[in-house]
Design goal:
This protein is an alpha/beta fold. It has one domain: Rossmann fold. It is 28% helix and 19% strand. The protein contains seven helices and eleven strands. It has a six-stranded mixed β-sheet with strand order 7-8-9-5-10-11, with helices on one face. The protein has a three-stranded antiparallel β-sheet with strand order 4-3-6, covered by helices on one side. A hairpin with a 6-residue loop joins strand 10 and strand 11. Helix 6 crosses helix 7. The chain is globular. The termini are far apart. The relative contact order is 0.14.
C-alpha cells in the first residue's frame, strides 16, 4: 500500500517503517551463555571455578561493565574468549587487524554463545600485555602508506602516550561498536587513569559504544553507573564499588600505610595485614 505525505512523493508502508525504526543504543551484547557440551572439563580454562561446571550465564544491561577480581580468577581469559567470538585477534585490534588469530592451547571461545541486539561487527580488543606486538603491526602498516594513530609511531611515544594515542584516535567516532579492554591501566599513571574516565564518558554518552573492561584499578572501576562483576570467590557476581578488595585495600593503605607496612615487614607475620578490614 502507498501513503502520501507530499504531493510529489509516494512512500510504501515498509519505507515509513524503516524510517521510524528506533536507533538502538548500547549495550548491544545482551547475554553470554556457556555451552557445556563444548567444554573440555579436565583442561584449563574449562576448569576455572567461575565457569560453574558449565552453567554460566552473564547478562549485560549497561553500556559499561567492569570485570574485577584477583589475579588468576579468569577475567582476562573470559574477555579474550569474547574477543575471539567477536572476530578480533588474540593480540588485540579490530576485525580487519587479524594479524594473529591462533590460540595456544584449549580455546574457550567456541564454548560461548553471544546474544546481540543488534549484532555489531565493529569494535576493538586491547590486550595490555601484547600491546607491543600490536604497535609493531600498526607501525608496519604505516610503512605501507597507512597513517599511524595520531600521525606518530606508537613506538616513538612512551607506553602511556601510545595507549592514549590509541584511545583518542582509534577508539572514537565509531557507531555501534564494542570495545573490550584488558587492563588499560597497565601503562597509565594515576593522573592518566583519571583522564581515561573522561574518555569513558565521551564514549558512553552518545550510546554508540559498549565497553567490557577487565581492570585492577580502583580509579577506573569507580566510573559511575557501570556494572561491576566480581570474579573473586570462584563465582561471577555483581558487586558494589566500595565492596571490592581493590577499593578497600587501597583505601586502607592510603589512610594508614605505615601500619600496614609494619605488619607486612614484621617477622613471621601472615598475610592478614594486606586484607581489607570487615565493614
Amino acid at each position: 500500500m502507498l501513503c502520501y505525505d507530499h504531493p510529489q512523493r509516494l512512500y510504501s508502508r515498509s519505507d515509513m517503517a524503516r524510517k521510524a525504526a528506533p536507533v538502538l543504543k548500547a549495550p548491544f551484547l545482551k547475554r553470554l551463555t556457556l555451552l557445556p557440551e563444548r567444554m573440555q572439563a579436565e583442561d584449563y580454562p574449562f576448569n576455572l571455578p567461575i565457569l560453574e561446571g558449565g552453567r554460566l550465564v552473564l547478562r549485560f544491561d549497561r553500556a559499561i561493565t567492569f570485570f574485577v577480581g584477583d589475579n588468576g580468577t579468569g577475567k582476562s581469559t573470559l574477555l579474550e574468549a569474547i574477543a575471539r567470538q567477536c572476530g578480533f585477534s588474540v593480540l588485540g585490534g579490530g576485525r580487519n587487524q587479524a594479524y594473529r588469530d591462533k590460540v595456544d592451547g584449549p580455546d574457550l571461545a567456541p564454548a560461548l554463545r553471544l546474544s546481540w541486539l543488534p549484532k555489531v561487527s565493529k569494535g576493538f580488543f586491547l590486550r595490555a600485555e601484547s600491546f607491543f606486538d600490536f604497535a609493531n603491526y600498526i607501525d608496519g602498516m604505516g610503512a605501507e602508506g597507512q597513517e599511524p594513530y595520531g600521525r606518530k609511531s606508537l613506538h616513538a611515544q612512551s607506553h602511556g602516550q601510545s595507549f592514549f594515542a590509541l584511545f583518542e584516535n582509534r577508539l572514537r567516532g565509531t557507531r555501534q561498536a564494542i570495545y573490550l579492554l584488558d587492563e588499560p591501566e597497565a601503562a597509565l599513571s594515576p593522573r592518566r587513569q583519571i583522564e581515561f574516565l573522561g574518555l569513558l564518558h565521551a564514549w558512553e554518552e552518545p550510546g554508540n559504544v559498549q565497553m567490557i573492561i577487565a581492570t585492577h584499578s580502583p580509579i577506573i572501576m569507580s566510573y559511575p553507573g557501570a556494572t561491576l562483576l566480581s570474579f573473586d570467590g570462584g563465582r561471577i557476581q555483581s558487586a558494589r564499588y566500595t565492596e571490592t578488595d581493590h577499593y578497600r585495600i587501597t583505601r586502607r593503605f592510603l589512610m594508614d600505610h605505615e601500619s600496614m607496612l609494619e605488619r607486612l615487614f614484621a617477622p613471621d607475620d601472615e598475610e592478614d595485614g594486606l586484607r581489607a578490614p570487615e565493614d
